[in-house]
């Protein structure tokens, strides 16, 4: 077995129970012109402790399918969002 994929992203929604939506950004070089572009993907992730809030930077790890859209789980909070 290989290691599971791990990505970092920003939480954009925490309205569900034990679930968050995380926006993951990656940088891709354009095939013809060479310009670096930002591409984002939104993943639904499992948050068993319900302590992650909008704006937090979190690390996600791949898991077995937990529901129709959830295939990721929050492993740790990398950086907390600034409180206003």
Report on the architecture of this protein:
It is built from no helices and five strands. The model has no long low-confidence stretch (mean pLDDT 95). The chain has a five-stranded mixed β-barrel. With 84 residues, the chain is an all-beta fold. It has strands at 6-13, 19-29, 36-46, 57-62, 70-79. The protein is globular and about 45 Å long. It has a single domain, classed as OB fold (Dihydrolipoamide Acetyltransferase, E2P). The N and C termini lie far apart (44 Å).
Features:
single chain; 84 residues; mainly beta; OB fold (Dihydrolipoamide Acetyltransferase, E2P)
Assign the CATH superfamily.
Nucleic acid-binding proteins
Q: Tell me, what's the shape?
A: globular
Order of strands, main sheet, comes to 1-2-3-5-4
Mean pLDDT: 95
Low-confidence stretches: none
Task: Kindly state the percentage of residues in helix.
Answer: under 10%
At the first level of CATH, the class is Mainly Beta
Strand content: over 45%
H/E topology pattern: EEEEE
Could you please say which CATH topology applies here? OB fold (Dihydrolipoamide Acetyltransferase, E2P)
List the helices and strands and how they pair.
Blueprint lengths: L5 E8 L5 E11 L6 E11 L10 E6 L7 E10 L5
Parallel strand pairs: 3-5
Antiparallel strand pairs: 1-2, 1-4, 2-3, 4-5
């Amino acid at each position: 077995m290989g290691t599971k994929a791990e990505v970092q992203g920003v939480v954009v929604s925490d309205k569900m129970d034990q679930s968050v939506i995380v926006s993951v950004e990656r940088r891709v070089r354009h095939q013809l012109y060479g310009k670096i572009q930002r591409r984002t993907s939104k993943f639904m992730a499992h948050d068993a402790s319900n302590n992650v809030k909008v704006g937090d930077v979190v690390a996600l790890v791949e898991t077995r399918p937990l529901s129709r859209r959830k295939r990721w789980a929050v492993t740790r909070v990398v950086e907390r969002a600034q409180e206003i």
